[in-house]
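The authors assume throughout that readers already know how a fold can be written as discrete tokens. In essence, backbone conformation is discretised, so a fold becomes a row of integers matching the chain in length. A single example would do more here than another paragraph of explanation. For illustration, here is how one protein appears when written out as sequence plus structure tokens:

…
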Amino acid sequence: MSVLIDLVALTLLPVWRWRVVTEQLRAGESPAAILATECQPRVRRAPRSRGRAQPLDAGQLRTRASQALERAARSDLEALAWDDVRYPAMLGAIIDAPPVLWIRGDADALDGLSVAIVGSRAGSPYALAAAERLAADLAAGGVTIVSGLARGVDSAAHRGALSVRGRTLAVLGCGADVVYPREHAALAADIARAGAIVSELVPGTPPRAPFFPQRNRIISGLSRAVVVVEAGEKSGSLITARCALDQGRDVLAVPGNILNGRNTGGHALLRDGAKIVESAVDILEELGVAGPGRREPSGRSGASYPPDALDSSPGRDPILGCLIPGETCDLDAISERTGLPPARLLPRLFELELQGFVQRTGGGRFVRV
């Protein structure tokens, strides 16, 4: 419990320190040591500020962390630490993975094949219908739908998944026990029953403007692909698309009406090489998924590894060949040894885990059994 308290305390540090904290955790430093270093008196210059900031107090941060855990218990939330074996490997592979995820619902819903569907908060009837249909068709095939619970396209995507009793994840820019916007309280309850509400912010955190672009990296980090349905030139959905590209995820876009100007951002993505989406089949083909629960290499990637690099036979699998039984490896090490990019490694690692050849050990690391 003390380690978890320290991890939660680290999430209470100023937001501009979060990436540094994640880098230190990946380097093997203990949460307690990182917290002690971060709380040493020194000149701290926050973005757009000058002068000496008030020093942080480790004891106060731990007290607030304990209070957050107590509130989570009262609100039926679960704190999932980054070194927990159930922490989603896709998210754990990104450079700035959250040290702690707060889950309302089923933490197991964060695993498996997921696709994010995002778009305009003021979506046109066409965009809402497209998002709902795509989500329903994907969810019916066993794909988990990820979005942000916002008005417009996000909520349509969640409702589409729920309409076929599929799984969906809502990533919030506030605490997992805070519903925003308020009119989505019933929708949030349905999502928690069919999947999970997810946040990196401690329970009780109110929605604030800087939190929403920050959470977009989690939406893309949990997903194999991001589908943009109607996005203006300055839409927040484009931030999610950029995060996806940085993380090695696929980016796809739905074409829109060229007369109303609502989808200029989406069309810009298409001009830059995003795949056009007209149906769920287009998304599944891009992911190399031939059918529900069955993955096959698409054969259309420009990567420099051989076509049979992801052969489904464990005896020929290059991933198993580079893993030494009992030795844990992170994605970067496996990628270096096999020459495969993380975006292609993770699906195969999931399959090997289900087959009993590989086991996750936490912190985004794997070991051959």
